[in-house]
Amino acid sequence: MMTTPSGFFARSELTRALWAFRREFVIVAVFSMVANVLMLSPTLYMLQVYDRVLISHSELTLLMLSLITLFLFFVGAFAEWMRSRVLVRAGMRLDDMLSTRVFNASFESNLRQMGSSTAKAFGDLVQVRQFLTGNGIFALLDAPWAPVYLAVLFFLHPFLGYVAIFFALLQAALVWFGHRQAVAPAEQAQMASLQENLYVQTKLRNVEVLEPMGMIHQLRRHWQTLHGNAKDLQGRSQALTHRLSAWSKWVRYSQQSLALGAGALLVIDGQLSAGAMIAANVLMTRALAPIDMLVGTWRGFIEARAAFRRLESLLNEHPERDPALTRMAPTGVLQLRKVVAVAPQRAEPILKGVSLAAQPGTVTVVLGPSGSGKSTLARCMIGIWPHMSGEVLLDERPIAGWSRDELGPHLGYLPQDIELFEGSIAENIARFGDVDADKVIAAAQQAGLHEMILRFPKGYDTSIGEAGGLLSGGQRQRIGLARALYGSPALVVLDEPNANLDDVGEAALVRAVQALKAGGSTVVLVTHRPGILAVADRLVILRNGSVEAEGPRDTVLAALRSAQANAAQAPLAAA
Questions:
Q1: Is 332 left (phi over 0), alpha (psi -120 to 50) or beta?
Q2: DSSP string computed for 316-351
Q3: How far apart are CA 298 and CA 296, in angstroms?
Q4: What angle, rounded to 10 degrees, do the helices at 41-48 and 274-296 form?
Q5: Global pTM?
Q6: Nearest CA among 310, 358, 364, 307 for reference residue 337
Q7: DSSP letters along 163-215, please?
Q8: Which of 203, 480, 492, 554 lies 20 to 30 Å from 466 when distance is taken between CA atoms?
Q9: Residue 319: phi, psi to the nearest 5?
Q10: pLDDT for residue 202
Q11: 413 - beta bridge partners?
């Protein structure tokens, strides 16, 4: 742990963010002190009414006592309101401070974990924020004042103080027991529920495949297993929480009655006045209220703590990129040096020491059979493959060191699986930034998409629906291509760009690649269809994760034909 003046709160980015609110926490603690001290007002008021006013029969004394008590109640209520207000504002500031970081870290985590859902992180941030502004934090702030109330009870009579300590220890034992018994079941129930929701979400994305092929029934059985497990764990966790709450209520009701009985016994023996008996009962209830509130909010504390740990881990694993990474626009010089790409639960690397280079104003085509690592190579080139060693350099600098916000406009990428987003065609092409109409139209024209878009009722303002569900596969691919071409980026990586294109679309693709080349862009085109070879300057043959051949297109093709001819003649020579 770091040894700094901020101590514990310097341990991680999240705890440092909380430590930045230490001034607010001090203010809240001061208001809590005022509110808790003034909670003695009802006790003092009862003592004065029973032991002074009822004996003196002085209406003026009763009036003054009532006015003073009402004023103290008002100050106490104001302190309660102010501490709530400060905490709520602090919670909102904490959200403003961390929401962008959590957003970026969630997307980086989703990228590195290859499709896993991290939307839970946003819920975790809300959960931490709400706990900091809810009853749980108030219980923690009020608990240190319980000894003050106990001291007043001892002042009234030691026996009442010992009774209060007994019930305080009993409730503290319930809190400790709840901590020992409720943490693991609650966390297991949360994890099971998260797995169930993740399973459903991933399957709903592919409902068009599940329904016609009759796969829903089989998947429903798997979901029912996950749902049943989550339901059982949640039931056990809730049953334990309710059991603890029931025991807590029993202790509270017993304390209220027995405290009154203990006071009555002292009154009978002449050791306490009737007013002190009533006041002591109220005071004991107030002294034990924070502990009782801790029991009631224990589940929320457990969930907030788990959310805090997940957020802390997320932010630690995905630190904020250096904001000083301001560089000139890249020219597009791309170099790969001994790149090795691996995947979890796969013993053999996907890419095995791949080295190649691509220069501005050139087109490099990567060919290879399915499973040879072409798509992985494309992801490595743009710096989004999570498990990689070796070097990927853009303008002789590691691509991971570039600021993504600055690099993004200069990089075009068309993945094999096209993902569009809910919005208009123009917004999708413009990457949901400020829509530059001229650049949008130019990109659409390069992709051979302009005339087709104009045939839509609303043209470029046509909404494509969630994930582009209102478009055909070819239309989605061409919009994805236009998005990659938007702004004439310096480096363009296209993964199977002609997979869903007809002859017209493929001709448009060829023209678009030629225009990029003429504009000085570095183009890398991954495909298994040789029809696009006409635009290639360099050719890379990838097989089983290794570069089998690489160089100028005509040289590589000649070498391949020679190898094929030799391979065809070998059986004849042997015969």
A1: left
A2: HHSPPPPTT---PPP---EEEEEEEE--TT-SS-SE
A3: 6
A4: 160
A5: 0.62
A6: 358
A7: HHHHHHHHHHHHHHHHHHHHHHHHHHHHHHHHHHHHHHHHHHTTHHHHTTTT-
A8: 492
A9: -65, 160
A10: 65
A11: 493
Distance CA 142, CA 495 (A): 60
The band of 1, judged by pLDDT with boundaries at 50, 70 and 90, is very low
The 10 Å CB-count burial string (b at 16+, else e) for 376-404 is bbbbbbbbbbeebeeebebbeeebeebeb
Q: How far is CA 189 from CA 160, 194, 232, 294, 309, in A?
A: 42, 9, 8, 21, 16
Contacts for 453 with CB less than 8 Å, ≥ 6 apart = 425, 444, 459, 460, 462
Contacts 24+ apart (CB under 8 A), 266-270: 266/157, 266/159, 266/160
460 close to 424: Cβ distance less than 8 angstroms: yes
| Percentage above 70 pLDDT, the chain | 86
Tokens representing 6 are 């901020």
> 447 vs 27, 308, 360, 451, 534, CA distance in Å?
60, 46, 20, 11, 18
Provide the mean pLDDT of the chain.
Answer: 79
**What is the gyration radius of the CA atoms in the chain, in angstroms?**
35
Beta partners for 341? 351, 388
CB atoms within 10 A of CB 147: 12
Greatest mean pLDDT among 64-68, 301-305, 505-509, 533-537 = 64-68
**CA neighbor of 486 nearest in space, from 408, 412, 381:** 412
- 400 contacts 336 by C-beta, under 8 angstroms: no
Say whether pLDDT at 334 is over 70. Answer: yes
End-to-end distance of the chain based on CA atoms, in angstroms?
75
Long-range contacts of 147-151 (CB under 8 A, 24+ apart): 148/36, 148/37, 149/39, 149/40, 149/283, 149/284, 149/286, 149/287, 150/287
C-alpha closest to that of 170 among 279, 53, 291: 291
What residues are paired with 551 via a beta bridge? 539
Are the beta carbons of 555 and 367 closer than 8 angstroms? no
Closest of 467, 460, 499 to residue 481, by C-alpha? 499
pLDDT of residue 285: 80
- Residues 212-264 have pLDDT tens digits of 666 666 667 777 777 777 777 777 777 777 777 778 778 778 887 888 888 88
Cβ neighbours, 10 Å, residue 338: 12
CB 480 within 8 A of CB 425: no
Helix or strand run (H / E) with residue 547: strand 546-552
**Res. 75 pLDDT band, cuts 50 70 90:** very high
Q: To which H or E segment does residue 364 belong?
A: strand 363-367
Longest dimension (CA), the chain: 131
pLDDT at 182 over 70: no
